[in-house]
Amino acid sequence: MVKRVEQDSRRFKEIVRGHIRRELRKYVTRGELIGRKGKNLVTIPLPQIDIPRFRYGTRQAGGVGQGDGEPGTPIGSDQRQPGRGHGAGELPGEHVLEVDLELEELAKILGEELELPRIEPRGNKTLSVEKERYTGIHRAGPESLRHFKRTFREALKRQIATGTYDPSRPVVVPIRADKRYRSWRPILRPQANAVIVYMMDVSGSMGHEQKEIVRIESFWIDTWLRSQYRQLETVYIVHDAAAKEVDQHTFFHIRESGGTKISSAYELANKIIDERFPPADWNVYLFHFSDGDNWGGDDTRRCLRLLAEELLPKANLFCYGQVRSAYGSGQFIKDLRGRFRNEDKVVLSEIDSRDEIYDSIKAFLGKGK
Questions:
Q1: Cα(209)–Cα(160) distance, rounded to whole angstroms?
Q2: What three-state secondary structure class fits 8?
Q3: What is the sign, positive or negative, of the torsion defined by CA atoms of 96, 100, 105, 108?
Q4: Could you tell me if 210 and 354 lie in one domain?
Q5: How far apart are CA 214 and CA 331, in angstroms?
Q6: C-alpha–C-alpha distance, residues 258 and 268, integer Å
Q7: Is there a contact between 321 and 351 (Cβ–Cβ < 8 Å)?
Q8: Exposed (0-12), middle (13-18) or buried (19+): which is 23, by Cβ within 10 Å?
Q9: CB-based contact 264:243 (threshold 8 Å)
Q10: Residue 11's beta-bridge partner residues?
Q11: For residue 271, what pLDDT is reported?
């Protein structure tokens, strides 16, 4: 029978999951979960969960049916004025409860609420990895792999055959010759692998709020894709008039200025894919975030050509998120929409504020590619 504490623990987890589902849009649009993220866990702040119960008040403290009142006096109101101190209080305040949730569980909730289809790796884009599989029984081996049932059976057979087994006192004592051990052999199993290439415009028109939107959205994209692939690599590229590969911390905190040449990011991404992540072995995801401003029509035409001829044939998905900026023209998404209107691999999203991150994630990941 399941212990009471296990029942309570399971019920508490169900309450927590229900709260996260109800408040998922709020969690998605706020960046606090990223700061609370560990290696495999994320800390979720929740309001204190209290079980409803009756409380006895102080006698003769006033209230309905106690003492005289004046017409118009609010029932049960506190006559003290807000903002005036009254000394130390005796009642508990409101608390926030923090619970740890596995990233895999968070991804599951995200997928259910956004109705995200599970990703099917395209073609044979897998790598073979070596796994151990138990395939038989040997007479020799380490004690950690000793097969208890086989050992007991061999000892029992030996004692019965030699006449030393006493049914009235069924004691079976294995000796060295009775011991049996599991054996294994390495086998090759296909394992899907994926790489995410994040590209972000860091020119002067991209401010702190635009970068924060990118940071929050990329966290949720990572969380979902890591639940779909055993191995996930991440590449970060920043660009203004030139592009360069950086680490994750630099990607989200770098401050640049100057003009914008988007083709520099696409050229670098194409070079990295060819050199380190050949499409024959990797599922490739491209995410580009910008305010839509580009250096000129010639560079935009170069971007469209790079996408059509180089990047799209190698990628599972190309997602472009245009973050609204007071200084960006917003033209680039119009150019993409005009060129790739019927291209299934291209997903475009306009992100005017944090409130639209939720819908942007659903648009990017909703095709299950």
A1: 80
A2: helix
A3: positive
A4: yes
A5: 19
A6: 19
A7: yes
A8: middle
A9: yes
A10: none
A11: 96
Output the six-digit token pair for 18: 């229900």
Tell me the backbone φ, ψ of residue 317, rounded to 5 degrees.
-155, 140
Domain containing 179 equals: 130-187
66 occurs within a structural domain = no
CB atoms near residue 363 (< 10 Å):
18
Number of structural domains found in the chain: 3
Which of the 8 DSSP states describes residue 328? -
What one-character-per-residue DSSP string does 97-135 give? EEEEEEHHHHHHHHHHHHTPPPP---TT-EEEEEEEEEE
Q: List per-block mean pLDDT (blocks of 10 residues) for the chain, which spans 369 residues.
A: 58 65 69 56 56 56 57 57 52 54 72 66 48 70 83 89 86 88 66 82 83 84 78 88 89 76 95 92 90 87 96 93 82 93 92 88 77
What is the maximum span of the chain, computed from C-alpha positions, in angstroms?
A: 102
Tokens describing residue 24: 């998922």
76, 64 Cβ separation under 8 angstroms: yes
Token pair listed for 166: 């006493």
Residues 44 and 151 in one domain: no
How confident is the model at residue 148, as a pLDDT?
83
Say yes or no: 177 and 221 in one domain: no
In whole angstroms, give the CA distance from residue 102 to residue 40.
6
